[in-house]
């Protein structure tokens, strides 16, 4: 395995929320950033930019636009134009702008829980009612979309469907057929889709990310796609992401909703994004090998040592959705592990319906850290049994 990702880096003195929110004896396995340094080429580009020394207002990142266009064409055969890209300082900002742009009084927003917690606030920020189309689990724990329920939940008030693909926290990378079916329903009912694809580069072997809007021009016409290099190259703190909106009218609505509230992104974010997309792919290949190894090791260890905790292999992301419902715990697993193992996960309850009894674990860390978390969990669970 690449040694690069085994390097332990002290993040406590780096303004990291992940490493500073809890007491110092707590091992943080929660918020979705990784413990790895960004690709060396990205660090080098940032150093050169910092050495320049002048940090005035950034202009339009023309070169980054071109690199994004080439990347989407090459990876997905998706052809977009330069004006289709709208930069934003984050994907959460991006989907909240989308909701503001399309909402109408009394409007409704559809989401698919259990899902990334900020999705639950977007409707209310834009004065919309949030309607849930929960994902359903097979007997083996695998998550699927309930299409009948999805269509039934759409009314004449539905303004937007906020899709999460790859899905955080369940780790599904939705298949082309699933996406086509969702889009077909939305198009038939004239619903705008905002597709959060922030995890779209973090895909494990055997799976393929399909940007929803790349499927057909008709779907693209109704879709706002949100992407970023932030999760992929571990540069989330640099706030550089973008929306792709091929429908001019929809794009103008989006730009209008941004006016006076948020601008593009920032100078260092642009530098890092450009270097990441231009030079980061060999690093990304190594990263995916390391993450896949961590994922498989996590699953093997749980199965062998803590079989009461169930995990379905995620198809993408570096997040594992651990089902602790059969562990016989008297309290929420988040509280149990925090108190007894001194390990901080994300609390399943925060992901809405279907999250109770689960925790989300971030395995974007060194194998040493992952092992430490697993050992602590095992000991804590043993104490419950004795
Ligand atoms: C699905 C999803 N969307 C958005 C974000 C955050 O994006 P940003 O930091 O660009 O706002 C996350 C972070 O975990 C995420 O998982």
How would you explain this protein's 3D organization?
With 386 residues, the protein is an alpha/beta fold. It has two domains: 3-39 and 281-385, Alpha-Beta Complex (Aspartate Aminotransferase, domain 1), CATH 3.90.1150.10; 43-279, Type I PLP-dependent aspartate aminotransferase-like (Major domain) (Aspartate Aminotransferase, domain 2, 3-Layer(aba) Sandwich), CATH 3.40.640. The chain has 13 helices and 14 strands. The strands form four sheets. A seven-stranded mixed sheet has the order 2-10-9-8-7-3-4, sandwiched between helices. Strands 11-14-13 form a three-stranded antiparallel sheet, covered by helices on one side. The chain has a two-stranded parallel ribbon with strand order 1-12. Strand 7 (158-164), helix 7 (176-188) and strand 8 (192-196) form a beta-alpha-beta unit. Helix 3 packs parallel to helix 10 and helix 11 (281-305) packs parallel to helix 13 (367-385). It is globular, with a radius of gyration of 21 Å. The chain binds pyridoxal-5'-phosphate (PLP). Pyridoxal-5'-phosphate is lined by residues 32, 90-92, 116, 164, 168, 196, 198, 228, 230, 236, 241.
